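TL;DR need structure tokens for one chain.
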Amino acid sequence: MNFGEFATRLTIHAALTLYAISLIVRITKRDVDRPSALVRWSWTLGFVAFAAHMICAFHFYHDWSHAAAYDATGRDTEELFGVNWGGGLYFNYAFSVVWLADVLRLWMRRPQAAWARYALHLFMFFIAFNATVVFESGIVRRVGIALTSVLVALWVFPVSFAKGRA
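>> reply
TL;DR here they are.
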């Protein structure tokens, strides 16, 4: 594995790990209205790692070319679904903007409507699931399935570890 592949993989693994930590803390501690420092920092550092992943991917794999990234996304989609469509790249761009906006919202301590919170996390979960389970294989897919299962189980069967709450 060369440095470019190592850096690209390391940054996405860090981003997804911090994403999962933040969600697990939010779910188990009911840390929604007034997020803790752990949630803010894991969410922020997760975004920073994701931004570093995008930089690594564009630098080491796509030579800073949107067209090259679009073509690579199309090839990956065609391998799985038989349709050469690179439009999924735009979902990654949207993912970046949405995550950054939520990081800024958290640090400004702005409230978030329940519908907006659900929409945000459903979109981000959809992208993370596709990135780890649908488009990956091997250990990344197995870890993605395990984390997806944990997050869904915690959401469906809530367990609270928050002080004074059951």
